[in-house]
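ok so for the tutorial part 2 we go from a plain amino acid sequence to predicted structure tokens. step 1 is just haveing the sequence, like this:
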Amino acid sequence: MENYIISLDQGTTSSRSIIFDSNSNIISIHQKEFKQIFPKSGWVEHDPLEILNSQKRTLNSVLKDFSFDKKSIKTIGITNQRETIVAWNKNNGLPYYNAIVWQDTRTSDFCKNLIDKNLSKTILDKTGLVLDSYFSASKMNWILENCPKAKEDVEKGELLFGTIDSWLIWNLTDRKSFVTDVSNASRTLLFNIDTLEWDDELLEIFGINKNCLPEVKASSDYFGEVNIENHIIPINGVAGDQQAALFGQCCFEKGMAKNTYGTGCFMLMNTGNERIESHNGLLSTIAWKIGNQVTYALEGSVFVAGSAIQWLRDGLQIIENATASEKLAKEANPNNEVYVVPAFVGLGAPYWDMNARGGILGLTRDTGIAEITKATLDSLAYQTKDVLNAMMKDSKIDLKILRVDGGASANNYLMQFQSDMLQIQIDRPICKESTALGVAFLAGIGAGIWKKEELHNIRKVEKVFEPNLDEKTSEIKYQKWEKAVEVIRSWTN
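step 2 — the prediction. this is what the tokens look like for a chain of 493 residues:
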């Protein structure tokens, strides 16, 4: 009997469920978008109950498509948007407030106050992360300070804090499992990535009670079980979306790297069992843990990538859909040098500028929607180069190939321009769902379907892009990008 794996992929703008067979073929996939909530400038929220319901609906849809014996579904993996935090009551299961999303910058001033108290180094040394509103801990603090019932229920032992994986698992296991994995825990600013424990000093800094936090497990482990039509299926794999994508791209060896073009743009490089401290604005994070073996990664986070294309569609309304952006970019006048800096929620790595805001530079009378669309796509490649430059300085590794995934990686114009900017090969797999596939791999390992060393044979390459632009021209374009970023930052700071 063939073995099948369900991946629940809970992202920033949509929830998806995918059923894979043991050769990584997609048997069924369903996706449902959910509402983005923007109460104030810089605030981004989601309704936790809508997230849960959207995930359940897609799960039910793939199961409806599945024509084989449900008993052949051996395991479930869960991957999720990271840093986004939910607080809920463990008795009634209701959230105290909307989920505060990783993009949200409402706690910037709180973080600046901690920086002024010289706490940045303590936090960096323990977590590998910079002190920024991007991460979960300051969001937890905000909920406690602004939701009186939440603060009251901490004393009663009724409040639970969890990243989205914990929220889903708790509900899907009928409120029996309150757990997370090391990759998600490592993104909270509360987890010591050396001792692999919630850190008392960090908890005190952010005012969080340890009893409110989930048990932390390995990424390939037993997380509880889900009852599907009276068939009990264990959850054997959990990982934050970017770590899951690194695993799904089979970047198992030190120095291998991937870039995911999703809502944001995230590049991770496997650094093996060695935690590398960044001196160039990157993060050191846990990639995954299997058994007792911890694998670390360097990460550069670009806050706005695919969401910039959504902005073209929904904000400016100059494209009908994301696919149209490729056609328009190819029609643009190559001599019209427009630069879009999409710092809608600040700038991530390597700048970490919470105050920066977006801008369009180089406009001329003949600039049209094609040129603005092209410049927006180009900004994803430029931001990726920002990160890769920092990553090579920190790791002392000269990257030759970058593995890519995520929705925008299907854009051939963007992938070719990315190769031109980086002057290296871009490797795009047949399966673009690397995030969901990665957590399916982790769950499959936990369920005994695969051994890690077998997975290289399952990943298949669809297309490799080689640089077409000479190195000198590439560098000139990039230098103009750096000037554009400098202008934007000087204007907003």
